[in-house]
C-alpha cells in the first residue's frame, strides 16, 4: 500500500473527478473506472479500492437523488421493494469479500468490466417507449413527465421476480467489486420488467446509496477504508459528476461510449493479467 | 392506491439526502484539508471519520424516514418491506464489528 501524502490525495481527488465526470456523461457509475485505477495504477489492495469506491457511490446516489425528488422519476415504491434484494446482496457480498483472494476479485472484476462494455455498446441508441398515459400503473408502476418527448409516461412493473433477482445480483456485485450495480439492474428493469429507461436509471441511482452502504459499513468496520483517501475520492467524484451534468448534452456521448467501452475491455484484460500474478 | 400519494415521502427523503450530503462533504473537506496541510492529526481524524459515518448514515436515515411515513399512511406492506431493509443494514453493521 502506498504512503498517504498530499500528492497522493490530489491524485485520488483527480481520479474521482474523472470517474465522476465520465459516470455522469455515460449514465453509469464511476466505480468501474475508479476501482481499477486505485488497484492497478496506485497499487492499493483490491478491498481498499472497492471500499473507497463504495463511499463515492453513496455520495453520488445521495447527491443525485436529492436533486431529483419531486419529479416522480424515481419510483420510490419499486425502489423500496427492490432494496430488500439489493441490500441482502450487498450484505452477502461484503461478508464474502473478506474471504476471497485478491486474484479472485480481480477476475470477477474483469468479467463485470467486459459485461459493462458490451451493455454500453449494445444500448448506445436506446430511447424510451411511450405508453398509453391513461393506463393504470398499478401498485408498483409509475407515471412521470418525460422532457425528451414532452409527454406523460405511464408504466406497469412486470416480472417482479426477475427484477428482484437482478437486484440481488447487483447488490452482491456492488459490495464485492465496489461499483454501484446499476449496470445490472437498469438493463434488466428496462428490457424485461417494463420500466422506461429514465425511470429505471433514476430508481437505480436512488437504490445504490443504501446498497453500497450495506457493503461500505463492512469494509469500514474491518479497517479497509482509508478515511483521507475516501474523502479525496468522494469530493473528487462530486466535483466531477457536477461538471459532467453541466457539460451534459454538448458532449459527444456516442463516441465517448465507444471509447470508454474500449477502455473497459483493456481494464478487463489488465485485471485478468494481474490476477495471474 | 396511487403513487402520487408519495409526494410527502418524496420531499422528506430529498431533505434527508440533501442535509446528509452537505454535512458529510463539509466534514470530509475540512478533515482532508487539516490532515494534509495543518498537521492537526486528532481533529482531522475525527472529522474524516465523522464525515464517513454521516455519509453512510444518510441512506439509512432515509430508510428510517420511509418506515415512519409509511406507518403514518398505514401502508403496512411497505412498513414491513422498509423494516426488512433496516434489519439487513443492521446485519451489515453486525458483520462490520465482529
β content of chain A, as a range?
under 5%
Q: Determine the fraction of residues in helical runs of chain B and give it as a percent range.
A: over 70%
The main sheet of chain B comes to: none
The average pLDDT value of chain B, as a whole number, equals: 90
How would you characterize the largest beta sheet of chain A? 2 strands, antiparallel
**Overall mean confidence score, pLDDT of chain A:** 87
What is the general shape of chain A?
Answer: globular
Low-confidence stretches of chain B: none
* Biggest interface: A-B, 53 and 50 residues
Q: What series of H and E elements makes up the topology of chain A?
A: HHHHHEEHHHHH
Segments of chain A where pLDDT lies below 50 for 5+ residues?
A: none
Net shape of chain B: elongated
In spatial order, strands of the major sheet of chain A run 1-2
**DSSP E strands of chain A, number:** 2
Q: Determine the N-to-C terminus distance of chain A.
A: 16 Å
**Helix/strand/pairing category of chain B:** mainly alpha
Describe this structure in words.
With 277 residues, chain A is mainly alpha-helical. Chain A contains 10 helices and 2 strands, in the order H-H-H-H-H-E-E-H-H-H-H-H. Chain A has helices at residues 6-26, 31-41, 46-68, 76-97, 102-122, 160-177, 182-192, 197-221, 227-247, 253-275; strands at residues 142-146, 151-155. Chain A has a two-stranded antiparallel ribbon. In chain A, helix 4 crosses helix 6 (160-177), helix 6 packs across helix 8 (197-221) and helix 7 packs antiparallel against helix 8. Chain A is globular, with a radius of gyration of 18 Å. The model of chain A has no long low-confidence stretch (mean pLDDT 87). Chain B is mainly alpha-helical. The longest helix of chain B has 32 residues, at 7-38. At the A-B interface, helix 3, helix 4, helix 8 and helix 9 of A face helix 1, helix 2 and helix 3 of B.
Features:
heterodimer, A: 277 residues, mainly alpha, two-stranded antiparallel sheet, 10 helices, 2 strands, 71% helix, B: 98 residues, 3 helices
Amino acid at each position: 500500500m502506498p504512503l498517504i501524502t498530499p500528492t497522493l490525495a490530489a491524485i485520488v481527488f483527480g481520479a474521482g473527478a474523472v470517474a465522476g465526470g465520465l459516470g455522469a456523461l455515460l449514465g453509469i457509475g464511476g466505480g468501474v473506472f475508479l476501482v481499477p485505477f486505485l488497484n492497478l495504477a496506485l497499487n492499493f489492495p483490491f478491498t481498499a479500492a472497492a471500499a473507497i469506491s463504495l463511499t463515492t457511490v453513496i455520495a453520488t446516489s445521495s447527491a443525485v437523488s436529492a436533486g431529483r425528488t419531486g419529479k416522480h422519476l424515481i419510483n420510490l415504491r419499486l425502489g423500496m421493494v427492490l432494496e430488500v434484494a439489493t441490500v441482502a446482496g450487498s450484505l452477502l457480498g461484503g461478508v464474502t469479500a473478506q474471504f476471497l483472494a485478491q486474484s479472485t476479485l480481480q477476475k470477477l472484476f474483469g468479467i463485470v468490466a467486459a459485461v459493462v462494455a458490451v451493455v454500453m455498446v449494445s444500448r448506445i441508441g436506446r430511447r424510451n417507449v411511450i405508453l398509453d398515459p391513461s393506463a393504470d400503473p398499478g401498485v408498483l408502476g409509475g407515471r412521470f413527465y418525460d422532457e425528451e418527448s414532452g409527454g406523460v409516461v405511464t408504466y406497469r412493473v412486470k416480472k417482479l421476480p426477475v427484477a428482484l433477482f437482478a437486484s440481488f445480483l447487483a447488490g452482491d456485485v456492488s459490495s464485492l467489486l465496489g461499483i454501484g450495480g446499476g449496470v445490472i439492474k437498469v438493463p434488466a428493469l428496462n428490457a424485461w420488467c417494463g420500466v422506461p429507461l429514465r425511470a429505471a436509471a433514476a430508481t437505480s441511482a436512488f437504490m445504490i446509496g443504501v446498497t453500497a452502504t450495506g457493503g461500505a459499513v463492512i469494509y469500514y468496520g474491518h479497517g479497509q477504508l482509508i478515511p483521507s483517501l475516501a474523502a479525496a475520492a468522494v469530493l473528487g467524484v462530486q466535483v466531477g459528476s457536477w461538471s459532467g451534468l453541466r457539460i451534459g448534452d454538448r458532449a459527444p456521448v456516442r463516441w465517448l461510449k465507444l471509447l470508454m467501452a474500449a477502455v473497459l475491455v483493456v481494464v478487463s484484460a489488465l485485471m485478468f493479467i494481474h490476477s495471474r500474478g | 392506491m396511487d403513487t402520487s400519494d408519495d409526494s410527502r415521502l418524496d420531499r422528506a427523503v430529498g431533505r434527508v439526502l440533501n442535509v446528509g450530503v452537505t454535512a458529510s462533504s463539509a466534514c470530509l473537506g475540512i478533515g482532508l484539508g487539516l490532515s494534509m496541510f495543518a498537521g492537526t492529526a486528532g481533529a482531522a481524524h475525527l472529522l474524516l471519520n465523522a464525515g464517513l459515518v454521516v455519509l453512510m448514515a444518510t441512506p439509512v436515515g432515509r430508510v428510517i424516514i420511509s418506515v415512519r411515513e409509511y406507518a403514518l399512511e398505514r401502508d403496512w406492506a411497505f412498513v414491513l418491506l422498509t423494516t426488512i431493509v433496516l434489519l439487513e443494514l443492521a446485519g451489515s453493521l453486525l458483520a462490520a464489528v465482529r
